[in-house]
Design goal:
By secondary structure, the protein is an alpha+beta fold. It has helices spanning 2-5, 9-22, 116-137, 205-218, 265-280, and strands spanning 36-45, 50-58, 61-69, 73-81, 86-89, 99-103, 108-112, 173-174, 181-182, 189-192, 200-203, 261-262. The strands form 3 sheets. Strands 1, 2, 3, 4, 5, 6, 7 and 12 form an 8-stranded antiparallel sheet that branches.
Length: 281
Amino acid sequence: MVDRLVNSEANARRIAMVESCFGSSGQPLAEQGRVLVGEGVLTKMCRKKPKARQFFLFNDILVYGNIVINKKKYNKQHVIPLEEVKLESLKDEGQYRNGWLIRTASKSFAVYAATATEKEEWMAHIEKCIEDLLRKSGKQPPSEHAAVWVPDNEAAICMHCKKTQFTVLNRRHHCRKCGSVVCGPCSSKRYVLRGQSDKPLRVCLQCYDELTRHRARAAAPPAAPAPQNTGAGSGGDSSADDDSDDDDDRVQPDQKHDEPKFYNDDEKTEETNNHSSKETK
């Protein structure tokens, strides 16, 4: 299906439209062999609360961004290579339904579709693209993925010490290894997590101890950990500084959106027939 659409004029127009909607805030998306497989709005679990995001599934990448004007303008473009993606279905729980995890080595997060059918469609198309990519490249799927961050509103106190209550002064931080919400003193250490960054990242004390023990057992070079005092009052590397698509919302998650659109051979055949019929008139 995808191979037939590679050189389709309709495919080229769709990709050009996506580029124009992101404008100068996005990177060029048109590449040889790239196909826009589908698009639609999903609710992404962000640090503060769930928020609507526009997603575009290509045969090799997954792109999403903030909705400024629906179907006309998006910003804060994120591009995720599908070879790095692993999906994990989530059970329905309370208000959070029809969800799944998108895991990569550098960032992992949960998304939710409007209906169970839409979830099934999204997951099936993404999985098919990943399968095709890995088969063609001969690569193995990644074995390690970044932790999914616990949302701020699910932790009133530090998840490590179980004592510190979060206030304006006692800010929330996230451990980059396990995703827990922790206070400054309980996340005063840093460690290089190779899949996420070449620089030392904030980790909780428990993860730091586990990482250093593992490094000692593996007899790795001593340069990996870089402990620093990064207490809550330091102002640097707080959770609020990292989730760049977690602000500037103009479209609420509960706002009605069109159903996702997935492009297939039937649509292409219909376009071809329409074009042929016009030529014969």
